[in-house]
Amino acid sequence: MTVPLKVATVQFEPTMFEKERNIARLEALVGKAASAGAKLIVTPEMGTTGYCWFDRTEVAPFVEPIPGPTTERFATIARAQDCYIVVGMPEVDAATNLYYNSAVLIGPEGVVGTHRKTHPYIAEPKWSAPGNRGHAVFDTPIGRIALLVCMDIHFIETARLVGLAGADIICHISNWLAERAPAPYWITRAMENSCYLIESNRWGLERTVQFSGGSCVIGPDGAIEAVIDTGDGVACVEIDLERARARRMLGEAVFEQRRPELYMELPTNTFTWNPLDFFSLYGHRPLPKGRRSQVAVAQFAPTGDANANLDRIEELATEARAAGAELVVFPERAVTGLDAPAAVPLSGEAVARLIAIATRHGLHLAAGLAEDDDGTLYNSAVLVGPQGVIGRYRKTHLDASDHNWATPGDEWGVFDTKFGRIGLLIGHDAAFPEAGRVLALRGCDLVLCPAALRGNLTSAHAGTAISQNYPIPTGADPHHWHLMRARAGENNVHLAFANVLDESAGYGGKSGVFGPDTFEFPRREAILGAGEGVAVAEIDTSNLDTPYPTNVVRRKDLVTMRQPHHYLPLIG
């Protein structure tokens, strides 16, 4: 077991045009953390200068090279206190005179390494260039440390790159805004990569922009281990790096279970061109027209009796239809049961009965089952309608229990329907950020996820004292973070997640239908917080009759802003 490491997050409100005051105040806060025994201390993005600069001319008096006068001031503290400090600052490259939004790791030996923000927010192109140093992990006597800056963490690839490179800790410095913090993406990136995330965010108001505070330390399981809501301050906590090095998500060895051979799209960007043109090129698989639709998810506890399960599926389908649903998603192996699966062929009686239920109620249904294909068993999901089987997907990322009986699938399930382009995932697949990203890159509007997931998929927020503009919520929320909401938002897709509910066996439900924009409030979603039943929400995959996409599920703004030239290690 490693020796516990004390770390600290610093929250701070800098003042524009007052660089010396900002640095002096940061020195005091860093000194306070070091005096409390912190060996790694993280300060906010652009903490030395403030953030909302109009252009290069305005920020020019405040940029510095790295190393430089500011880094030497913090190196003096690091040497005196035998600690490591992360500082956010505007950097000038002496060779090119380009400016960068940078994070620098400083230790007793001086500058250890620098990360230049690779994925710019709307503000950076006004004065800085995208980072050109990739995503490094720095080996130090206190652990393997990676740096990310604010918008970088919106993209699943950045944290995955440093996770795969062995990061124990991601130091994420930010000027986060427009939602309560700790932000759901921070939690998701820590959990999916099974590493610590030290988040240093600013707070306060600058040029009409309200920043969210919520600086924190997040554990490898996604739990908030220390937090500051509002105001300048320091929060310290001891961490155990062995927890990160175990690389477990929801109890599973996720790094060992990755399928890089299926991720070949990751270093590409299918949304660089107008997707309405790209996906219709050569007349091959143009995007379906799309529409507004009512989609439901159902949660219950399947048994080992397929007929009993199908009876329950029909009851819940009837309930969903009465609530206006046109498409209903049921849990993983909802047809055949979770234990000692009695696998069935797609041409058999069980799937025929599922189609009959769809026909009787005028519905489309997606449900999981154990599939027998001439003696080879798969953990599969089928999408059916009155017209029969529309598509089948075989789970590609098997969990520990699947490995006892199932063969992994080797292709993605993407199907064009009247609801839009649909992608299928099954349970544990959704633990892998690469899976949802591939479906997004293939143009999916809607992802259906039958699941049997154990563990915490949601966490609450007690509310924040930081005021936000209407309609951004600030009060308490029992489902502030939901893993599947993050999966939907990061890929700009609607996502319908139907989980098993069987608390005695550890299956906690929390099924829901989630919208394609994480920062849209009120949220377009429905969550089934407790009990068996259904939840219904409207999705919209339509587009105005224009040459360019008007719907975020077709534009995929976050997908468009990816920087795929950095992502080659993800397929290695």
UniProtKB/TrEMBL annotation:
Superkingdom of origin organism: Bacteria
Pfam families referenced in this protein's UniProt entry, alphabetically: CN_hydrolase
Residue ranges of every copy of the CN hydrolase domain listed in the record: 5-241, 293-541
Swiss-Prot/TrEMBL keywords: Hydrolase
Keyword Transcription belongs to the record: no
Keyword Hydrolase annotated: yes
Protein name (Swiss-Prot/TrEMBL): Amidohydrolase
Upper lineage: Bacteria, Pseudomonadati, Pseudomonadota, Alphaproteobacteria, Hyphomicrobiales
